[in-house]
Design goal:
The chain is mainly alpha-helical. The chain has helices at 8-28, 34-45, 51-58, 62-74, 96-135, and strands spanning 49-50, 78-82, 90-94.
Length: 139
């Protein structure tokens, strides 16, 4: 028996690793990583949002985020333009190609989520989300 199994943080980290690996594997057929999926989803829901806003919302360091956006832009999924309201910022939008990719990725995400629900049950999923929400502002 592993003495760490009784620690919430350890259990969360192990579960997160399993969930992330499954989602990463699911998205790999689109050559997309989970973090990129999150970026595309946020831009889709907030057209014209700034790079800074997306990196802050996702908790990604700005230096790392620039590389992510550059990759998505190079692949034709995102367009980056100087912000009309702040010349120091870039506004982000999905291209038509980016929207098509996000649509396919969202379908795969639904398949991934169904696998998680199969393990937890609908009520268990809801309970887990509520418990995790309680931990989100621990600091």
């Amino acid at each position: 028996m592993n003495p760490l199994n009784g620690y919430v943080g350890y259990a969360l980290r192990r579960a997160q690793g399993v969930i992330y690996a499954d989602f990463n594997d699911t998205l790999s057929r689109l050559d997309l990583r989970p973090g990129q999926f999150a970026v595309l989803a946020l831009i889709d829901q907030n057209p014209g949002t700034t790079q800074s806003s997306v990196s802050t919302a996702l908790g990604i360091q700005k230096a790392n985020f620039v590389a992510t956006i550059a990759d998505l832009e190079d692949r034709g999924f995102v367009v980056r333009r100087k912000s009309a309201s702040d010349g120091r910022s870039y506004a982000l939008d999905l291209t038509a190609r980016g929207r098509r990719l996000l649509q396919r990725a969202a379908q795969l995400q639904s398949v991934h989520e169904a696998r998680v629900i199969e393990r937890l049950g609908i009520a268990g999923r809801q309970q887990l989300l509520e418990l995790l929400d309680k931990l989100s502002d621990l600091r």
